Amino acid sequence: MKKLNWLCFLIGCISISPAFSQNHWDSVGTEIHLNYDLWPDVIYGDSNYLYMAGRFHVIEEMHMQGIARWNGIKWDSMGAGIDRLIMYDTFSYNPNHVSTMTLYHHKLYVGGEFISVGYLNAPGIGVWNGTVWDTVKVQPFRNYSLMRTNEDVFALAVINNKLYMGGDFDTVAGKRCIGIACWNDTNWSSPNFPGGFSFELISSICEYKGSIYAAGHFAGNNGGIGEIIRLDSAGNWHSVDTGIKGTMDWINTMAVYNGELYVGGYFYKSDGNVGNCIQKWNGTSWSDVGGGTDYQVENLLVYNGKLYAMGQFTVAGGVSADNIAEWNGSKWCSFGGRIQNGISTACVYKDTLYIGSDFTIFANDTISYLAKWVGGNYTDSCENPTGISEVSNPTGRILVYPNPNNG
Q1: CA pair distance 156, 260, nearest whole angstrom
Q2: Is the separation of the CB atoms in 268 and 244 below 8 Å?
Q3: What is the pLDDT of residues 139-157, one digit of tens each?
Q4: Whole-angstrom distance, CA of residue 397 vs CA of residue 404
Q5: Are the C-beta atoms of 254 and 213 separated by less than 8 Å?
Q6: CA distance 26 to 276
Q7: How far is 33 from 90, CA to CA, in rounded Å?
Q8: At CA 324, angle to CA 23 and CA 113, rounded to 5?
């Protein structure tokens, strides 16, 4: 009986990874060709479509200007799409693009760095009603020149039936408004983001425990406010402890998971933070997330009861993880395989996880720019809190010793 228990213990401790005997990622439609070898900047899913926006004009040999939608079977264009490349000087071009998308009152709002949508003047933000493009009734930005400044949108979020917009602007609808503005489908208003410190941009907006959190790159821990700040229900701004420390650090993304607010970006314990590129806030204090990652987190997304971190990293919590890792509240798990060049955007569409970026995924296939997860609950390896290391077994074989044995 002792020999049988010992054998079961050995088998239970081995994680068998037959070097991707099946492909856990799949392509979306046929091969996607994006012009200038540029990748999707943002993807977004609703109940009907997966939307993809970026610096491209061709998908499956069809013209689609900067934005397209996928219905699960085929790609379709969205009117005239986003405006074309704009020449900034004789020697360089700036590819205009969408940075963020969200549904608000049954319309798709897109924000980013552009001048027009569907050939309509719409600096920084536009609206797709399902059939045609439109402008916001009260346009937030008035600069129609090609050399535009301070009117880029990086975050859109619907909170309490209002649309919040974040970016690097300082004026909205002709009124002073720094970094964050609110749209109620009739008028713009300013939450009066506090000044008095260095400000570059707001890249993420999130609701947590009745407050609105705005994060990005500002303050640099000046005055105890570092890259994140909280707006309470009374309209007052508060620091989030000391925020993220380090003048060259920033936050890219936020997500609420298991009753806590997670933030991901570029920051390290060496600057005085509690985590490396990811940490969590419980409303009172910050704490580490299993050791974090070795380089920046660009996306946080909750899917099937797990938190997924994506970005440009090779390790999560001590586990080898190629730009994507799963956090279940206590340990990190990787997906195996190889994803080149990081993951810049992700979403859930029809209960499936999609990722997009300038990558090529190697498994049994080569997938470029956009992929969906078809691997179910598969994980390649996980952090083991007990200290027992998982063993990769490329051959898929288990050797029993002694052999023969009596059971």
Answers
A1: 21
A2: no
A3: 999 755 544 555 799 999 9
A4: 16
A5: yes
A6: 31
A7: 27
A8: 110
